[in-house]
Design a protein that fits this description.
The complex is a heterodimer of chains A (348) and B (211). Chain A has 348 residues and is mainly beta. Chain A is built from 3 helices and 28 strands. Chain B has 211 residues and is mostly beta strands. Chain B has a single domain, classed as Beta Barrel (Porin), CATH 2.40.160. Chain B is 12% helix and 57% strand. Chain B has an 8-stranded antiparallel β-barrel. Classes of the chains: A mainly beta (348), B mainly beta (211). At the A-B interface, helix 1 and helix 2 of A face strand 6 and strand 7 of B.
Chain lengths: 348, 211
């Protein structure tokens, strides 16, 4: 009998030990705490914010397409437009391009948010990227040739930057913007497509590092400037810092913990700028601030970090009239508003 | 007046006494050591409370009661139980269950409790009142974030009313409290997230008993 009992006890203890090992919530937040902080999902999907104009927040929602959201009534109004692929805002119009298969050009439209009229552009363009918040469009002009433009009415304006042989058609580069006139273009190098080339705004000035070859290992996905200081963050979360007066001297300061792996990895990473720092959420929903002057990284402990501990963020939009007001488009939970410098966040 | 009352009482009592003689005495089933019960349970579960003793007031309330405050929705619970009688009123056995409930963001919390269960049945017959306590473990997981999970202790308290519509088969309407502690040591970065969670299943059970 004793022997039988022993035979039963050993497997039971083994099962318990295994469950303890696999079931240890060793470093994460408490499960019941997370549940008590959970928030209702909003059915429009992930929200990429475009503009805040005339009391409405314009966005592209993954499930619902282009939307105009009224925070006062909490009403989502759909903006008709099928197959929208790229979108930006020129101050009056939402400029958007529908999908196209290489080498076809995309059809472009302008949607006037006041008159609610769609206008089709006369000339089509091979649009590779648009910066949703800033009036910037990356276009493939010719074989292995790319340019950045702004929209001017239902047409593109003068070229802001031109790259004639810096990138290749097989791996189109991406556009990473800080504001309407400050941006970089980052993509696979033509000589060795396992490496990446990065170019800063003014006529495509190259960004390089004479001391650290890993600068070319990954695309840059975020950028911030403050005076003559510039920081860029690559797809692994490594922070690179230099002066805009010497773009050949990028050095890595540190890496952001828990930076998520994404596919494709060259997509711009959601960040917002406030008081000389870039703020971003990592893959574990923790917030970090990257000081643009020094490149130093610190964990954010303001209230909004706690608010978003259970909420993944898709995009930010700094209010054009009040830089202390930041709108937040989430992956599943609608739109929030952060008030700086207090750092409080509320759903709107 | 008194005579009339006495006559009426006699009229009522005499026939009752006569019929009582003809009735077969009802045999009340008595449990004894070695009798067994198999029970299948299912029903909704109401999230009852979260108690966070170490949480500072700036981070939230220590005590959250009922689904709205807990940011949970009503879930479900199902289990199977086997018990053997130790004597005429006490049965000991085990129960394996599955509890689920969604949070406000539609993330799923699940718990698989496995426990030793002691049941005391003070009132027996066609109608019975079982009172149970359970002790064991629970494997808990959550679908949000990095899908964390943990193994915890478990304590349960239950009461119910059973009706045996056949000699061997009965149904029970019961409720109780399942207590699941989530404990983090003082060195854990989120030690203040230590929580005692209470869930209240309301179950309808089907029991088969034999002796």
């Amino acid at each position: 009998m004793k022997r039988k009992f022993k035979h039963m006890v050993i497997p039971v203890l083994l099962v318990l030990a295994t469950l303890l090992i696999v079931g240890c919530n060793t470093e994460n937040e408490g499960i019941f705490m997370r549940i008590s902080e959970s928030v209702e999902k909003v059915d429009v999907g992930s929200i990429n914010l475009i503009a805040n104009e005339t009391g409405k927040i314009y966005s592209y929602a993954s499930k619902a397409g282009l939307q105009a959201y009224d925070p006062a009534t909490k009403n989502w109004e759909s903006i008709p437009g099928a197959g929208v692929r790229h979108y930006t805002f020129d101050g009056t119009n939402i400029v958007y391009a529908t999908e196209a298969t290489f080498p076809d050009n995309n059809t472009l439209y302008t949607y006037d948010i006041n008159t609610k009229v769609h206008t089709t552009w006369v000339i089509e363009h091979a649009v590779k990227a648009m910066s949703p918040k800033f009036n910037l469009i990356l276009v493939r002009d010719d074989t292995n040739e790319f340019s950045v433009y702004s929209a001017t009415g239902p047409a593109i304006g003068a070229s802001l930057a031109n790259f004639t042989s810096e990138f290749v058609d097989d791996f189109p580069p991406n556009l990473v913007a800080f504001d309407d006139s400050t941006f970089l273009v980052s993509g696979n190098s033509p000589g060795d497509t396992t490496k990446y080339s990065h170019y800063y705004v003014s006529e495509g000035a190259p960004m390089t590092s004479t001391t650290d070859a890993t600068f070319y290992d990954n695309p840059l996905v975020a950028v911030g400037t403050d005076g003559t200081n510039i920081v860029a963050i690559d797809a692994t979360g490594k922070v690179w810092q230099a002066a805009t007066t010497d773009l050949t001297a990028f050095t890595s300061t540190t890496s952001i913990t828990g930076f998520p792996e994404r596919n494709p990895k060259n997509l711009p990473y959601p960040v917002f700028y406030h008081d000389s720092s870039l703020y971003l959420q990592n893959g574990d929903n923790d917030f970090y601030a990257v000081n643009v002057t020094s490149g130093a990284v610190s964990e954010v402990t303001l209230d909004f970090a706690d608010t978003f501990s259970n909420i993944k963020i898709k995009s930010y939009l700094v209010d054009p009239l009040d830089s202390n007001k930041i709108y937040v488009g989430t992956m599943e939970n609608g739109i929030y508003e952060i008030t700086m410098p207090a750092g409080t966040a509320t759903d709107i | 007046m008194k005579k009339v009352l006495i006559v009426l009482l006699l009229c009522a009592a005499i026939p009752m006494m006569l019929f009582a003689e003809d009735e077969t005495p009802v045999k009340v089933r008595e449990y004894e050591m070695g009798n067994q019960m198999f029970t299948f349970r299912a029903g909704p579960v109401i999230p009852a409370f979260f108690f966070r003793p170490f949480l500072s007031s700036s981070d939230g309330e220590k005590f959250l009661v009922f689904p709205d405050a807990m940011h949970m929705k009503v879930g479900g619970y199902g289990s199977i139980r086997y018990q053997g009688f130790l004597n005429s009123t006490m049965a000991l056995g085990g129960e394996l269950g599955y509890l689920f409930a969604y949070d406000k963001g539609d993330e799923l919390f699940t718990s698989v409790p496995f426990q030793a269960k002691l049941t005391y049945i003070p009132l027996q017959g066609t109608i019975e009142i079982p009172l149970s306590i359970g002790l064991g473990f629970s494997y808990n997981s959550y679908s949000g974030g990095e899908a964390p999970s943990f193994l915890s202790m478990l304590a349960t308290l239950e009461a119910g009313v059973s009706w045996y519509f056949k000699d061997d088969w009965g149904i029970t309407l019961g409720t109780g409290l399942q207590l699941i502690p989530e404990i983090y040591g003082s060195n854990h970065p989120y030690s203040d997230h230590t929580t005692l969670a209470g869930f209240m299943p309301i179950t309808l059970s089907v029991t088969y008993r034999n002796n």
